[in-house]
Amino acid sequence: MKSGNKQRNFRLVLIGIVLTAMLAYLIYGLQLLTIEETEAYVAATTQTREVTTYQSGVRGRIVDRNGVVLAYDETTYDVMFYRDPTKTSAIESARYTQSLIKAIEIIENGGGEIIDGFYIYMNEDGTYYFDFGTTSESAAATRRKNFVEACNFSNPELTAEEAYLILRESWRIPDDMSFSQARKIMSIRQEAVLNSYRAAEGVIIAYDVSLAVVAELDMRTGELLGVQTQKSSTRIYPMGETASHIIGFLSKQATTDMSDIDYVYDSYAQFLGEEATENMLEMGYSFSDYIGVAGVEKTMEAYLTPHITSRQGYRTYLTNLRGSILETLQSVSPTDGMTVQLTIDIELQKVAEEALLHNIQTTREKQEQRLQNNLRYYQNLREDVSTIKMAETGAVVIMDCNNGDILAMASYPNYDPNLFTDGVDDLEFEYLYGDDSNLPTLNRAIASRTAPGSVFKMATGFAGLMEGAITTETRISDRSPYYYYVSDPLTRVEQDAPSCWTSNPANHSNLNISRAITVSCNYFFFTVADRVGIDRLVYWSGQLGLEGTTGVELPGELSVVIGGQDARYDNDKALSEQSSSMPRLIYNQIVSHLRNIAAQSGREISEEQIYTCAEKLLQLQDGFQRELGGEIRRVMQEELNIPEGISLIHSSWVVTISTWLEELRWKPTYTVQTGIGQGVMMLTPISLARYVSTLANSGTAYDAHIIDAIYNADGTLYQEVEPTIHSRIAASDEYWRAILEGMRGVVSPEDGGTASSVFSDEFEDKGYLDNIIGKTGTAQTGTSGTNVDIENTSWFVAALPRDNPEIVIAVMIPNGLSGSSASVAIEDIVTYWFERES
Asked: pTM of the entire structure?
């Protein structure tokens, strides 16, 4: 019994000794740890480094010609995330993630939204995919490359799922967090690594948060590692939809390369000089910066932006290794962007937009009424009358005809650029870009082309005068149909021979040029175009301003197309570069035909061979009238390995192709159609405004301008935009008088012009009708066999005051019934102009 007690006591003593040793060891370890941490803390608080942060000012304002503000930046507060690139451990990564989880909760509870730009998405079936937020393949490739490099992925070809899982582990996202919540954190972390080269500037994680959110975040800054609030700005467009196509909107940059987003590099080079580069990051931009992507916001980006290096401010701090600021070493305030003043008058702009919408609505009412009153007639033309297109869109341009300034430019439908500041929801996206959308963001004043119809007749008449084909006293009577063509004046071609629009040719007898314009006689201008020829007609059109683009400082302006072989088909240009759609149509027909030939011949012919063969067959058409059969057979043998003997036997193969190629050759019949503004001719509303301005001022074609001046941030003048001349025509005053007299007659009730009875009695009683000149244009949208008059494009151009024109108005309404239908907008705008001037 005593022996057992001794043994038990020995064990207790032994255990006590062990426990005492362990406790001593722990105490010693804690002392060492305390000493080490203290030393580390002392080092962190005593060792220093310099940190420089950069700040941008506010984007420059856009104002109208009278100084009315159209776009400006409003002070707001953003939430920033700063990630110290030296803190790369797993523990630090977890700390950042936990900090972001708390910050996101505060922001969302306060009504804010986290910016979600994460490149990885999840399908409904749980699979993952990349979406780099752009339809441009080159821009998407650039984004992916930057993403892969920034995230240090070893495999550049990894899948979206692989990338997601790697990042989720690396960034220590909690296992129980859903994908939708995780992507908010991962979006922020993604932006941080993409901008790691400028980590001191941080990335924005939420725009325009409430003051309550700012207060709570600032109060809890000690527990929110890397999260701070920052005074910022939001782009405001106070006029809403008004002038939206002119002003444009902003978006985050899609790529580092300006060429990928269609920027006009010359504007940067002109302003920035040696600082200009095609790499936006090198110029001072970051991926979170907003840039202009439409309208003046885009074309004047170099002047408006506060983000280029030369305008950025900076602060250099002395900090310890824990990031605490010890001293501000240097501080330079940023410079705001410049103010851009436009040529437009915002009040006139409002009137133009209202007038355009009024015109579209009244035209559609007329169309619907006409359709119902003549339903059987239209059913014979179009079995399904619901497919008949009616007025829905349009454009108006008002130009100072004595210097080229754009005073107003309306396009319908329009949009509110503030949508892009606040974020586009699903319904708004459907309106802007959906399948049934009329593309509200498209500026139809510069980016919509169509045949002008009779408003081109003044150009044909002027070319005839300048070439000596007619004089002001030459008389021509309507002998419709027009059978005679330059190629063989003695040959009558009755099939599809063009005719005048009037059902009574006697009304168009013995016309001189002025009277022909007034009554818009097709036959007169068939004859003149026939005599002048297409080359000289194109030349004089160009001199009048119908050539290339007008030069207006807006993105997306399309070049005009008049006529000639190069306009119909130019075999020196690629298919995608052709001026008209005809080459593509013929190409598609040939491709389909070659597939049938391959099937009939039983040969193995690849699609690539067929495409190449079709292109080479097209290139046989050089504009000269000649037999192409032998060359067609040669190309088919070289490209498809079909022996010429086989294609000789199957002669229909070659005949069909030859017939189609003949359609690409310019013929005198097309010249005749060009004379009345039909055929391949395509003009924009702004080009019509410049052309009519040239007529109104008797011979000076100005480049169009929508920029009036640029001012430095301090209000001093940087640059004033002066008028620039495209061409100047030295012509007899008699010629100009004859043209303008014809346009006077168009709106004269006494002269019975084509627009003499379309204006209201009130408009006429006030004397406004007697103080304008004008011309209507009705352009068919189909061939004589398929055209439905309701679908005609409506044009109306006017200049005023009559005796000494100051402005020109051009109105275009696609599917607008007839030229006179566009008189509604003309009347509304003219009334406003004269009442304001009185």
From this structure: 0.81
